[in-house]
Design goal:
Number of strands: 0
Shape: elongated
Largest sheet: none
Radius of gyration: 15 Å
Distance between the termini: 14 Å
Structural class: mainly alpha
Order of helices and strands: HHH
Oligomer: single chain
Helix content: 55-70%
């Protein structure tokens, strides 16, 4: 079995570094909102993470960093 490189793993998982970072930032902002509102369901944290990941995905696509079909093995 072939060992995958970091780039190949990111392409298989569908997540890149920008998407991960934006998701973490969104989750952090959402956690602060949850703490202010005394919300134990973490709904703002989850929504912030999803929003951040989607923004990160758009940025990666715009920069051309996430095109699995263009990678040659």
């Amino acid at each position: 079995m072939k060992e995958l490189s970091l780039i190949e793993v990111e392409q298989v998982s569908g997540a890149g570094a920008i998407m991960d970072a934006a998701g973490a930032l969104g989750a952090g902002i959402g956690a602060v909102i949850d703490a202010i509102n005394h919300d134990l369901t973490q709904s703002s944290q989850n929504a912030g993470q999803i929003l951040g990941e989607n923004i990160g995905k758009i940025v990666e696509t715009h920069l051309g960093l996430h095109f699995p079909g263009s990678v040659r093995f």
